[in-house]
């Protein structure tokens, strides 16, 4: 095992007069360094230090420290750096735990007394005896034996006691050698030393310079603590390699001194923490990317400082957190599941680090060493890896991305939260320069709450209430901190990391603001509503004006529901229907201000009481089951399959699927259709059947065909709704490592949005972003919602009857159909034709919607009415689905049958413009929402026959957006009672970007007829928006 000093002495012999160290404008050449190291070595040797000995070094970073560690290393001994800023108890504990034979100091012990036993050595006195021109030689170096590390670095342990990490000589040598293959680290380059010797960043700074013939320039403590002085140091010393933690760099990113130093800077190296893109952008907006180059490096003490590297560019700033790149040569990183099995690209897993940088283990802790340093099977055979506890994923370009510490994830109200995500949202606020978020318990409470400590971006106090509103606009409600405090700066420890022990008590701070759900709207309903709109629509609050229509911004029925979920205080006075009537921020705020403290009669949705074991069916469910019986059980058994990259194995995925069946009440419903007044019962268990198939030996398309065949056959097999789950699942592994998940469910318990929620839940659980337990915690809310539906439906039916809706509809339809589409000739089986709406037409439709001030959905419904609507007198009629989800907590992710097919009747005045016609469509849709739970039969009244033969659906299941990067394909299969159905399906790429919509036409018609209908729809759309 070669001694690390070999490279140093080779540099010293080649260029003895080159400057090795610089401090306070005093230079130490390589020859002088070797002479000082030899003098210290003699003293150490006299004290009994040799191979295997451990020497504590209680000295600040500087030339003296460098001479000591070179001397220790040359003897094959191990140095143990101490931080003089730590309490003496900690340093004493480290000396005792490491069984150090000698403690070296620089003329003073810093006010603390070492424990009895070790020899005290004054390095400053020893260095004074350095003989000029006589220093260490290669012959002096002692080869370290097996298990004899170069240094022991102590890090914080989860038990509260520091743990010693043993790092060998070759790990440091290989780090510098491999970095030199990726970066230009030539002799003479000046490296800044700004970190404590007890922080492993100092290993990179010191040995990186000495092993490449560079110069180490040591910053004084007062320069490190003062941002302006630190930037001035970088400029004055002509620093070429400047290493910073992101927290420290944010203090000086806008410094004129640092900008002036850019010409001589070769690299700014980031490490120690996740690097937010906004941190880098502050610099690159002024200085670009080329000089200096910005290098993001990831590593851990146990893997010798740095493991990966990434030269940053504009592409790297495309995500909130900069990528950490690829492994350095000779090192490796695997993204694995909890069992150490590599996960597919794009899936989040734990980072396992292998290669030449691994530490030997933890000092005197074989159990912890065995837990963290593990052996994995690789293509090259068994290899040793370190389990980092860090989460990350690899993108399609091969870049690794850091997703935070697994142990920095906390649970708040049953939700797992990454604190880094909340911090990033806070830093993006214009008024905030920096932030740290913690989970803390309020005095007297058992549950933790999030607390955000904010640093203002400008002089003067922060408007904490405004910050709270802004955070509510970009974060889900459960991620919004319960308390905000203002602090002048983030307290940093000697290592440049945030010192959380020095943060103020958030509950005692006078300059704190509560920002929970109730406090957010007090005094300014408009601001709170604007923030809620932005939060639900994933927009910047600045983009939401007082007069901007929620639905014009992209809102839909599900998002409207989430407005009331995220702002539950709205439900004290308003209902979901009010949002349709007052869709702008200003109108809704005025409606809220003018309403009484309790919801108006007939409009309120009172939350039902505790769940009951049995409750009535809705009339819509009864109608659907009647049609199901009449079709020989062919209709309303819906299928969906999803191909996805997931970081689990097949048995684990099957286990998750079964567990989710237990988590959702809909899967536990059993129908008692023989009871007087049919009812549905919630069973304690679901016992969902899950078929598990390993199809990895089949060609990919053959395996997909197998999944499609199973879906069709399962859809054709009637459910036993009285005695078995209304849900079937199949999971299969494919040859490329991806999975195909197939679900068949009865429509009576699961509409289209619900089916996508089920897939979203399954993918989230498989990727580790949520747990089955978290999903199951919503089960009581979901049962309440399902139980409430019959009563809510009765209210809507009564309202439509009171308004004489069926009579008015009958009068309108009495004119007779002037041009009903002929569904003949029929095909023996249902066929489907799909055409892509070109990007130009789709963009024109979106622009036309904005011009008409209507949702884009209304444009497509209008085009459908023009293409296939049935004409009754001067009106066009068709059937569209209306969402009936109630505005109750959890309704947006509740699985159930909430959709109601409804007739939409729109005046078709020949003198009306296309713009006016689309506005009429939107008005008709809003009118239907007023009684959204009314079944089609009750809308028709005594008129039994259906006056239209076509059903049109606008499909935008954005609930799967969070899993977009894992999805490889989605297919559906369903049969309804309509001879002809037209679906406009909004689509997104795997990266989550919108792609042109798909228009699918299906029915019991010949394929040629379906193709004609599809083309008629595209033509009608172009004519409407052109």
TrEMBL record:
Residues 520-596 form the Carrier domain. This is Amino acid adenylation domain-containing protein. GO terms for cellular component: cytoplasm. InterPro entries: AA_adenyl_dom, ACP-like_sf, AMP-bd_C, AMP-bd_C_sf, AMP-binding_CS, AMP-dep_synth/lig_dom, ANL_N_sf, CAT-like_dom_sf. The keyword Phosphoprotein applies. NCBIfam families: AA-adenyl-dom. Its cofactor is pantetheine 4'-phosphate. GO terms for molecular function: catalytic activity; phosphopantetheine binding. GO terms for biological process: amino acid activation for nonribosomal peptide biosynthetic process; lipid biosynthetic process; secondary metabolite biosynthetic process. Keywords: Phosphopantetheine, Phosphoprotein. It comes from the Bacteria.
């Amino acid at each position: 095992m070669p001694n690390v000093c070999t490279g140093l002495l080779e540099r010293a012999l080649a260029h003895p007069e080159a400057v090795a160290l610089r401090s306070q404008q005093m230079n130490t050449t390589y020859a002088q360094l070797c002479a000082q190291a030899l003098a210290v070595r003699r003293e150490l040797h006299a004290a009994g230090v040799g191979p295997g000995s451990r020497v504590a070094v209680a000295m600040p970073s500087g030339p003296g420290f460098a001479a000591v560690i070179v001397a220790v290393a040359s003897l094959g001994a191990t140095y143990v750096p101490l931080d003089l800023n730590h309490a003496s108890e900690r340093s004493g504990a480290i000396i005792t735990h490491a069984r150090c034979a000698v403690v070296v100091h620089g003329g003073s012990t810093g006010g603390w007394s070492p424990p009895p036993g070790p020899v005290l050595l004054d390095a400053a006195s020893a260095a004074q005896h350095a003989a000029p021109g006589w220093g260490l030689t290669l012959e002096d170096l002692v080869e370290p034996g097996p298990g004899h590390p170069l240094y022991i670095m102590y890090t914080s342990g989860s038990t509260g006691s520091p743990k010693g990490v043993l790092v060998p000589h070759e790990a440091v040598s290989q780090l510098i050698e491999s970095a030199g293959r990726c970066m230009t680290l030539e002799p003479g380059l000046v490296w800044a030393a700004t970190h404590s010797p007890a922080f492993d960043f100092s290993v990179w700074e010191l040995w990186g310079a000495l092993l490449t013939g560079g110069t180490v320039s040591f910053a004084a403590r007062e320069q490190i603590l003062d941002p302006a002085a630190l930037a001035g140091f970088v400029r004055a010393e002509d620093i070429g390699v400047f290493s910073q933690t992101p927290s420290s760099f944010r203090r000086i990113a806008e410094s004129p001194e640092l900008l002036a130093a850019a010409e001589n800077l070769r690299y700014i190296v980031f490490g120690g923490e996740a690097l937010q893109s906004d941190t880098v952008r502050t610099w690159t907006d002024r200085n670009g990317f080329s000089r200096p180059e910005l290098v993001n490096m990831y590593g851990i003490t146990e893997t010798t400082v740095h493991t990966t590297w990434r030269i940053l560019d504009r592409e790297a700033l495309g995500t909130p957190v900069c990528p950490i790149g690829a492994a350095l040569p000779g090192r490796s990183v695997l993204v694995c599941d909890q069992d150490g099995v590599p996960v597919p690209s794009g899936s989040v897993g734990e980072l396992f680090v292998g290669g030449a940088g691994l530490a030997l283990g933890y000092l005197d802790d074989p159990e912890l060493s065995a837990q963290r340093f593990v052996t994995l099977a690789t293509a090259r055979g068994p290899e040793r890896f370190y389990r980092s506890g860090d989460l990350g994923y690899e993108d399609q370009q091969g870049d690794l991305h850091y997703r935070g510490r697994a142990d920095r994830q906390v649970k708040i109200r049953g939700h797992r939260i990454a604190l880094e995500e909340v911090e990033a949202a806070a830093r993006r606020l214009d008024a905030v320069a920096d932030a740290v978020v913690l989970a803390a318990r309020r005095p007297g409470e058992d549950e933790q709450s999030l607390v955000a400590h904010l640093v203002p971006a400008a002089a003067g106090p922060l408007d904490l209430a405004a910050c709270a509103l802004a955070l509510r606009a970009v974060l889900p409600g459960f991620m919004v901190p319960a308390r905000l405090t203002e602090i002048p700066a983030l307290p940093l420890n000697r290592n440049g990391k945030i010192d959380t022990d020095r943060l103020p008590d958030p509950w005692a701070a006078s300059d704190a603001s509560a920002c929970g759900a109730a406090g957010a709207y007090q005094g300014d309903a408009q601001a709170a509503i604007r923030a809620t709109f932005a939060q639900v629509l994933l927009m910047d609050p600045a983009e939401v004006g007082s007069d901007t229509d929620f639905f014009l911004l992209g809102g839909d029925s599900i998002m409207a529901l989430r407005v009331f979920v995220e702002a539950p205080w709205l439900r004290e006075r308003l209902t979901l229907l009010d949002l349709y009537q007052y869709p702008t921020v200003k109108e809704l705020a005025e409606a809220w201000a003018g309403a009484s403290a309790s919801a108006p009669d007939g409009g309120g949705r009172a939350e039902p009481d505790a769940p009951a074991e049995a409750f009535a069916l809705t009339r819509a469910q009864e109608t659907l089951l009647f049609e199901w019986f009449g079709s020989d059980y062919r209709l309303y058994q819906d299928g969906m399959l999803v191909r996805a990259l997931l970081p689990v194995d097949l048995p684990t995925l099957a286990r998750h699927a079964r567990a989710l069946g237990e988590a959702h009440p809909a899967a536990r419903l059993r129908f008692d259709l023989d009871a007087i007044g049919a009812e549905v019962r919630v069973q304690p268990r679901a016992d969902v059947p899950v078929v598990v198939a390993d199809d990895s030996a089949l060609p990919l398309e053959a395996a997909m065909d197998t999944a499609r065949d199973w879906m069709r056959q399962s859809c054709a097999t009637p459910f036993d709704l009285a005695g078995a789950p209304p849900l079937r699942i199949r999971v299969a592994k494919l040859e490329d490592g991806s999975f195909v998940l197939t679900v068949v469910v009865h429509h009576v318990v699961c509409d289209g949005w619900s089916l996508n929620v089920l897939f979203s839940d399954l993918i989230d659980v498989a990727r580790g972003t949520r747990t089955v337990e978290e999903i199951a915690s919503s089960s009581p809310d979901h049962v309440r919602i399902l139980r409430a539906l019959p009563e809510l439906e009765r209210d809507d039916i009564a309202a439509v009857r009171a308004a004489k809706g069926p009579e008015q509809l009958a009068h309108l339809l009495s004119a007779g159909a002037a041009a009903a589409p002929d569904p003949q000739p029929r095909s023996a089986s249902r066929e489907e034709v799909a055409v892509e709406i070109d990007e130009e037409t789709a963009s024109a439709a979106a622009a036309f919607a904005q011009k008409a001030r209507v949702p884009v959905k209304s444009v497509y419904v209008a085009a459908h009415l023009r293409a296939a609507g049935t004409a009754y007198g001067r009106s066009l009629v068709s059937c569209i689905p209306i969402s009936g989800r109630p505005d109750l907590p959890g309704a947006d992710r509740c699985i159930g049958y909430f959709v109601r097919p409804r007739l939409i009747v729109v005046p078709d005045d020949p003198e009306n413009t296309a713009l006016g016609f689309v506005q009429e469509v939107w008005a008709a849709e809003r009118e239907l929402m007023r009684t959204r739970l009314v079944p089609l039969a009750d809308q028709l009244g005594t008129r039994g026959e259906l006056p239209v033969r076509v059903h049109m659906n606008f499909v935008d299941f954005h609930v799967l957006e969070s899993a977009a990067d894992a999805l490889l394909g989605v297919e559906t299969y369903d049969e309804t009672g309509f001879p002809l159905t037209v679906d406009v399906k909004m689509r997104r790429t795997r990266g989550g970007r919108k792609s042109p919509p798909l228009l699918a036409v299906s029915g019991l018609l010949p394929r040629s007829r379906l193709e004609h209908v599809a083309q008629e729809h595209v033509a009608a759309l172009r004519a409407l928006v052109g």
